[in-house]
Write a structure and sequence with these properties.
Elements: H1 2-11, H2 13-17, E1 41-46, E2 58-64, E3 70-75, H3 80-91
Antiparallel strand pairs: 1-2, 2-3
């Protein structure tokens, strides 16, 4: 009966989606090493979130990996123009 239960859980979509992730195998974390301040940036676009002022439901975030400095801005639309404007105004 225990083997039948294991097989059922392996094939059950709901069971796999809601599995306890604490039993997942761990992986060694790697440090991101930047040689100097503002040499290496990461950017992420997050959302959609609940619509805020001026219909801004996305967030763009830039992080300097050396200093951990963060810049963020809400966006109404994700376009190349908006990303470039954020980069030029807040990152450079």
């Amino acid at each position: 009966m225990q083997e039948d239960s294991k097989e059922h859980v392996k094939r059950c979509d709901k069971c796999q989606r809601h599995v306890d992730m604490h039993i997942a195998p761990t992986h060694e974390l790697k440090s991101l090493l930047s040689p100097w301040t503002f040499a290496w940036w990461g950017m992420e676009i997050l959302g959609p979130f609940t619509t805020g002022l001026a219909q801004r439901k996305y967030r763009i975030v830039g992080v300097d990996y050396f200093t951990k400095w963060v810049e963020a801005e809400p966006l109404a639309n994700i376009t190349a123009f908006n990303v470039l404007r954020f980069f030029k105004r807040d990152i450079l």
